[in-house]
Amino acid sequence: MRTSPQLAVVLTLIATFFWGSNFQVTKFALASLPPWTASVERFFFAVICIFIFFVWKEGVNGNVLKQNWKAFIVLGAIGVAGFNGAFFVGLQSTSPITAALIVATTPITTHILEAIIYRRLPEFIRIVGMIISLLGVALVITDGQLILGGAIQAAIGDIIIFVGSLGWAIYTVGTRVFVSDATPLATTSWTMLFGAIILAFIAMFVESPITAFSAGTLESHLACIYIGIGGSAFAYLFWNMGIAVRGVGKTAIFFNFIPIFALVIQITMGIIPSLVQVIGIVITIIGVLLGQGVITADKLFKGVSRR
Q1: 79 and 171 in contact (C-beta within 8 Å)?
Q2: Are the CB atoms for 147 and 141 separated by under 8 Å?
Q3: How many other CB atoms are found less than 10 A from the CB of residue 177?
Q4: 281 near 261, Cβ under 8 Å?
Q5: Percentages (nearest 5) of helix, strand, coil residues in the chain
Q6: Measured over all CA atoms, what is the biggest interatomic distance in the chain, rounded to whole angstroms?
Q7: CA–CA separation, 236 and 230 (whole Å)
Q8: CA 27, 28, 29, 32 torsion-angle sign
Q9: φ, ψ for residue 152 (rounded to 5)?
Q10: Which of 22, 144, 207, 302 has the fewest CB atoms within 10 Å distance of its CB?
Q11: How far apart are CA 18 and CA 142, in angstroms?
């Protein structure tokens, strides 16, 4: 069955919901598991889930793997191992809302990378949007001290999450630029497999994953299952389907929903966000919309003239 543009929008939105919920659920996983071990457990379930569906739906095409194996390994290392390793490590010292807000700036990074690859200069309004979105993130990271003039401190986790978001931007562009003749399902499956293998090697090098796994609580293991199946397998698949049907730029804009979903989930859990967090989210999303070209200078001027 061919994926329509309308269905691609729905699937991409579902993907961002899973990712938005991951920020809160990961905190449960990290309650009794070290970050790299938790990330490996997550992708253990993710790889099993996605490959069962992959083999059933399409079957393994050796020619696709032979043609793209280098790209799959590199993209798996950057977009799966890199992004998710940074995600788990970073959430040890930053809040889910702050992390979600940092990740929300990824569409702008994606557009910058596209501009570099295709050698086209971004419009001025998009540069303004990038600056505005970064100010919104900085407002939350500094807890409002950026405006109040107090001592500015950023958690190391914020920096790690930001580096991970750069990796995801590279992955998003790379799946379209460097992978050829591969379906979204095949790209998702192979990059996830290679990324999981790399994560396992890192975990064995920096932690004791078998010992840590046995010491983990049921709550942490259930959290890993959720973010493995929903927040990884289905989210990655739906995201790549959106890219294949609607393109990188139109798909990347859905990252705006990640901090919104994270905020809604936090509220449903009884955790009330601070005023600074809410203001920062609004400023960041406005900046990202400007950076994505959804809000243009013409639209702004038309809105002002009507008033």
Answers
A1: yes
A2: no
A3: 15
A4: no
A5: 80, 0, 20
A6: 65
A7: 9
A8: positive
A9: -95, 120
A10: 302
A11: 27
Q: Is 70 exposed, middle or buried (0-12, 13-18, 19+ CB in 10 A)?
A: exposed
Residue 273, phi-psi category: left (phi > 0), alpha (psi -120 to 50), beta (remainder) = beta
* Assigned token pair, 19: 């990712």
- What amino acid occupies position 262? A
Other CB atoms within 10 A of residue 297 CB: 12
**Would you state the structure tokens that stand for residue 111, as one six-digit string?**
């557009």
Cα–Cα dist 203/27, whole Å: 18
Position of tokens 């919901």? Answer: 17
pTM over 0.85: no
Structure tokens at 213: 């796994």
pLDDT along the chain (307 residues), means of 10: 78 89 91 93 92 89 93 94 91 84 78 79 72 77 62 73 90 88 89 94 91 92 94 84 78 76 84 79 78 59 50
Torsion of CA 34, 191, 21, 82, to 10 degrees: 50
Block residue for tokens 């994560």? 199
Distance CA 14, CA 94 (A): 25
User: Cβ-count burial of 173 within 10 angstroms (0-12 exposed, 13-18 middle, 19+ buried)?
Assistant: buried
- Contact at 8 Å (CB) between 251 and 175? no
Q: 293, exposed or middle or buried, with CB in 10 Å at 0-12, 13-18, 19+?
A: middle
Q: Return the residue matching tokens 């990796």.
A: 167
Indicate the length of the chain as a whole number: 307
